[in-house]
Each structure stands twice: as C-alpha cells, then as structure tokens.
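During the reporting period the student researcher (J.K.) took over the structure-prediction task from the postdoctoral fellow and processed the backlog of single-chain submissions. One of the processed entries is reproduced below for the supervisory committee.
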Amino acid sequence: MPFHRTSRPCAASLVLRTLSALPLVLAASLATAQQDPSGFPLDSVGYLNEELPRMEAAIAAKDRSFFHGAMVRTVAFSERWGFKSKANPELAAYSMCTAAVMDYAVVGMCRLAPSEECEPGLASRFDANVQRCREVAARK
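J.K. obtained the following structure tokens:
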C-alpha cells in the first residue's frame, strides 16, 4: 500500500490562524476585577515597551515559538483589563491601545514569516496605534 503524503500547512500559516482567533478570545474574556480605565493607556504602553524588544529579538533569531508565549501574555493582559468585551466598555476611548496590544503578535509573526495571509497595511496601522497610545499615555 503506497503512503500518501498529505500537504501540511506551513507553521506560519497555522500561527497566523491561531493569532487571528485572538480577538474572539479577547471578546469572550471577562475581567474579574475592573481597574480605572484612565490607567489603561499607561499600562498598555508599559506592556508594549516590554514586549516589543522581545519581539524584535525573536524576529532576529527566527524564533517562531516566541509568538505562542506572546499570545498567552496578550490574553492575560486583556483579561486583566477586560478589553474587547462588555466587561469594561470604558476602554473604547482607548481603541488605539487595544488595537496595538492585540495586533503586536500578528505584526511580529508577519515580519518573521511574511505570507499572503498577512494583511497589507497592518504593520503601518500598528505603528500608528502604538504612537497614538503613547501620546495618550503621556498626557495621563
């Protein structure tokens, strides 16, 4: 009996599909303790300031495994704040920060392993959201 080789999707494709489900996971999460929404931009900037250098190092090292941990940390951060859910609707004023936090792992994975599944314009939109979030945090 001949063995048939099945086509396996590339690892980048699988990770991107997993990361694309992140907004759904975030939308379903509910924060157990509400925090003052005015502190969200500063906490988001602190989170991104910690994560972005790690992401750059992972990209340089071609370390795809980093992005699984990044997704876990992002979910934990979002659960702490209850963003993208009805648990903390006051964060809608800081959509640039929620978008930046949600998109950073996807942007990094697309930089590491560009594919046709990577949305054109996502990286520039991410950079603009990070900048806007930093500006809002600086005013707080």
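The committee noted the following: Residues 2 and 40 are 58 Å apart (CA to CA).
J.K. will present the remaining backlog at the next meeting.
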